Description:
Number of strands: 24
Low-confidence stretches: 81-92, 338-356, 377-417, 534-538
Structural class: alpha+beta
Number of domains: 4
CATH superfamily of the largest domain: Histidine kinase-like ATPase, C-terminal domain
CATH architecture of the largest domain: 2-Layer Sandwich
Helix content: 25-40%
CATH topology of the largest domain: Heat Shock Protein 90
Number of helices: 18
Largest sheet: 9 strands, mixed
Radius of gyration: 32 Å
Amino acid sequence: MSARIRKLPSQIIDRIAAGEVVERPASVVKELVENSLDAGATRIDVEVEGGGRDLISIRDDGIGMGAGDLGLAFVSHATSKLSDVGDLDHIASFGFRGEALASIGAVADCRIVSRERGAAHGNEVESRGGTVTDVRVAAAPEGTRIEVRNLFRYVPARRKFLKTPGTEMSHVTSTLHKLALANPGVAFSLVRAGQVVFRVSADEDRRARVARFFGRKLFDQLLSVSDHVGSIRLDGYVARPEAARPNASWMHFFLNGRPIRDRSLSHAVRHAFDGLLTKGRHPVVFLFLEMDPGLVDVNVHPAKTEVRFQDAQVLHRLLRHGVRQVLLGDDLVPTIVPDAMQAGHAAQGGDAAPPSMSPGARREQYLEGVKDALSGFLSKPDSASRQPSLYPPARGAATTGVGEPHPILPAPPPRAAQRFLQVKDSFLVFEVEDGLAIVDQHALHERIMLEQITERVQSGTLEVQPMLVPALVELPAADVEALLAESDDLARVGVRLERFGETTIAVQSLPSLLSRRDPEKVILGLAERIRAGKGAGSRMSLLDELMHSMACRSAIMAGDPLTEEQAAEMMRRADLIDNPQSCAHGRPTSLRLTFRELIRHFKR
C-alpha cells in the first residue's frame, strides 16, 4: 500500500501561507512597509491602483539588496533577520518569519528592483505565481522598489472575496496611517491612481501626524500621556471623554514601532475611563509603548498584530495609572464657546455706543453689563425668587446619613458669595468667573456619593445590613462557584455569601444602600457581570459596578427640591473630590455657558 502522507509542493505551501499573511491589499502594504523599515529606510513611498487589487508599489531609500539577496527573496523562510533559535527570544525587527515575500509572490505578479548603497548598479527579480526568474542587472536608484500586480491572480477564489476598490483603499490608508504614527522620523507618502492621498515629512512629529490623519477637531481634544515603570515607557495621547466613539476602533496601541491589538491594554484604558463615559461609548487613544524586546513575544500570529507580554499585569497597571492621572488632572467640564465673535456689532442692531469705541471695547462693555445683570439677579436676598417645583417631591428632605436610601444633604451655613437658582428641581444655575455653570444635581451628588462609598470601602467602614433570615438564590452551579470565588472581595462592599447547596447561595447581608433591593436581583446581576467580565482587572470592575450602583441609588434625584444651603454644601463637597466632572456612569455633571456665547447668541 502506498503512503497517503506526502510533502506538499512549495507553491502549495506558499499559497497556504498567503492565506494567513495576505488577507487583503492592506496586508501586503503592511508587510512590505515593515520590510522597508527594517532596511533602515527614512523615506517610504506607496502607490496603489484599484484599491491594491491592480497595483501596489513600495519604494524606499533603505540599504537595498544585492544579487545574492534577491536570489533568495522569494524563497520560503529565507530571512536576514534571524540567525539562530536564540534570536526568537529577542526579536527587534518587524519581519522575521521569512514567508511574506514568498507568500505574496505565490498569489500575484511581483517584481523587486534593488540597489545596495554604494553599488555600481542594481538588480531585479520577478515572481509570477511562485515561478521565480533569474536575477538580472537593472538600472535603479539606491534602495528598493517592490511592485505587486494582480493580487490573488493565482488564487481567484480569494480575489472574489475582496471588497470594492474604495473599501480596500480605506484599509490601505488606515494601515499606512498607523505605520506613520508608529515611526516618526520616517517620511511617508501615499498615492492613489496618480493622486496624492497624503505626504508627511520625516520631521513631522506624532502630534502633527495625528492632526493630519484624524482631524484638528479630535486633535484639540487630546491630552498628553507620559509614564513609565522600570524600563517600560508609555507615551502618547488620550482624547477627552466627549470625543468618545461608539466602537473601540479608535483605540490605537503601538509597541516598539509596531501597531498591535491587545485585549489587556484595551481593558486597562477602559478601566482608566471608569465613571467618565456613558454606556456604549469607547475611548479614543494613541498610546506608544517602548520596552525590551525580550519582555514580549511577537511571534504569536503570522500577521504579528497580536503579542504576548511577559508580565501583562505590569502593563495593565501602567496604562491604567498613566491614563487615569491625565484625565483627573484636566478640567473635563465641557464648555460652550462661541464659534466666532462678530466684528461688526453695530451692523447687527445693538444698543448705541460711543462711535469712537473699537469693536473689541464695545464687546467688553456688553460683557460687563451681562455680568452685572446676572450677578444682581443671583444675589437677591430672598430665596423665593426660585420657581416653584413643576414636579411633586420624589422623596422627603430629611438630612440623613449615607446609609439612607436617598439622603438629602445636610444644611450647614451657605457660601456667602454665591447664590443658586434651582430649575425644575433638577438643575442648579450659578455664576462663575467667565459665565454661567449649570449643574445636574443628581449626577453631581452621585459622584460625591461614589467618592464617599469608595473611601468607606477602602477603610472598612461601609454600613452593612445583615439579613434577619438569609435570602436563598438559586443559580447555575458554574455561577455559584464564580460568585464564591469572589466572596472575599464582595464582602468588602457588604455582600456576604455562603454556599447552600450545589446550585444555591445564601445571602447573609447586603450594603445598607442596597437593602431595599431584591437580593435575588442583586445576586443575579453580579453573576451576569462576572460572566461578562473575563480578563485582567475584571474583579476590580465588579466592585466598581457595585459601588456605582450604590452611589446612584443613594443620590438625590431629579425632582428633589433643595434649599440654597443644601446646594451650597453640595458644591463645597464637589470641591473636595478628585473627579467632580462626571457621574458614576460617565454622564457630565455640569456645563459652562460663557458670557461671550450669550452675547453672540443675542447678537449684542
